[in-house]
Each structure stands twice: as C-alpha cells, then as structure tokens.
Amino acid sequence: MTIEYATPYRSRSFIPPEPGKPYFVEKGLGDRAHLFGDLVTVYAGGEQTENTFNFFTVEGPKGNLIPAHSHPDTHEVFYVAQGAVRLFVEDLAGEQQERLLTPGDFGFVPKNCPHSYRMERHHSLVVGVAAGPGGTFERFFETLGTPTDELVLPARPFVPAPEKFATVPQQYDVRFLPDHQWRTGDGQS
C-alpha cells in the first residue's frame, strides 16, 4: 500500500514532506517532471534527508547534449541502469574527460566540476544521487521543467524559456555554463 501526501511542490505525492518518516515508493511513482526529452523521477529529496542528499532517476531518449553546468556545493553520482550515457566532465585543473557509460557503469562528478551528458540510446536510465554541504537540488527539475503525473517520456521535448535558466542559480545549487566548450572528441551537441 502506498500513501499519498501533499507537499509544498505538489498537490499529491508518494513522498512524505517531512524527515524521520520511513516510506516506500513503487517503481516510477516518485515526484515526476519532464525536462528536455527526459522523464525525471525524484524518490528522496532534501525534505526527507534533512538536506543531506537526494535520489532520482532520469530516463530519456537518444538525444542532444544537455547544457553544461556545475554544482558549487554538491557532488553528483551517475549510475547507468539501462541504455548508454556519455558523461562529459572537467576537473578543477581544467582537464576534460568523456566516458561512455553502459549498464552497471558509475561516474562521479565532484562539486564545482563542469559536466554534461548525452543519452546515447533510446530509453536510457540513469540513477542519480547528489549530496553536499549546500543542500540538495532535486526540485530544480520540476522548477525548470514541468511537473507531470505521466509515467512516460514527454511526447515533445519540454524546453524552458531562456529567462527561466537565470532563476535557477538563486534557488538551487546549479550554475549553467552557456559558453563552456568541450574539447573532447565527441563533445558536439
């Protein structure tokens, strides 16, 4: 049995709005949002973990490189559960790397490191965890994207208005890097 809650973000959710309460969420029934061509599902966030970490999945079609960005106070994990994802990352010394991740592969991006990724196969699924002293950023997905009750990828990509990108750094630990250039072999969008 799954219980529904109301949260500050949604009229209904399967995630309790306060910490210290054990809970279970059936596959896919976390808080969902469409962003670009992806379906993002949040299973645990700042409210439940006292802002120590979040846990989410991103499922998407083969597509374009998502915008380069960094998290000044947050470390991020990429674990590929299905499909293939190409992860691009730059360390603090400016050295860039890219790696094709397939099921079972893991990528770690330390705080302040620019990064981006591209789904290389349709219906790729990434499990993400982000943690750090600055809190969590999972509500960024539904703020920049659009909340949905659907369990499928968006019929059409949801591309936020350009001015919406400017509001994100004030609310969440996400800094977009619109002029960032990937010098690795496949860093083309």
Automatic annotation (TrEMBL):
InterPro entries documented for this protein: Cupin_2 (IPR013096), QDO-like (IPR053146), RmlC-like_jellyroll (IPR014710), RmlC_Cupin_sf (IPR011051)
Pfam families cross-referenced by the UniProt entry: Cupin_2
Domain Cupin type-2: 61-120
Protein name, per record: Quercetin 2,3-dioxygenase
Organism, as annotated: Streptomyces pharetrae CZA14
